[in-house]
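note to self — DONT lose this again. spent like an hour looking for the file last time. sequence + predicted structure for the chain T wanted, 222 res
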Amino acid sequence: MNRYKAQRQVQIDESETPKYEEDVQDEEQQEENGTRLRPSDSNVTEDQEPFMGVKVRRKASLRRECKGDYLDVPSRPFLMKILQKQGDNQVLFADKVLKFTSSGKMKRRILMITDFAIYIVDPDTDALKRRVALAAVDKMCLSELSDNFFAIIIPTEYDLLMASTRKTEIVTVLVEATKSASDYELEVVFSNRFEYNASADLVKEVQFEEAEGGVRTRIVRK
């Protein structure tokens, strides 16, 4: 089985703003990646979490409040143009995230969630990379540990694997938006091993385990 590793270390340092130290590796490289994802100053409060009692939460995240648009989308013409072209105007969430490609590389992306769709935008080229209707989302997969990873499962397409220090808020926004748009509640699945379709014909498994100082994450080709 051809495998590659993508190691993540979680550090809690509330004195600093969110920071991503990225070291992109090809799938064939079997070396450990020292990326650190530090928590943000804002997130949903405990009573907003649709999955309390299952997820192991960092203490800092339980005190955070939801802001939603962390990019001030109305002040960014290229984002407004993308939304207007699609007929969207209500932004529920916007922030920069790390997205994992089918080959295992990490790409910086802008994630926007509206009341109708999910948008993935390249911040370097200002280009829309993907739009997924909320109605097409089947479920979300997360570990039971205090990491930053989440997968959005889309049966009719390939899935999305991303990492964000505001993961809790993203989950809450998607659950509520899906319920409003499609009149059904989005399933949120918790497991320290879950599969996702990295592309149309490529299935990978994300594995999580507790490690000293954080959570170790491995992504394995099935």
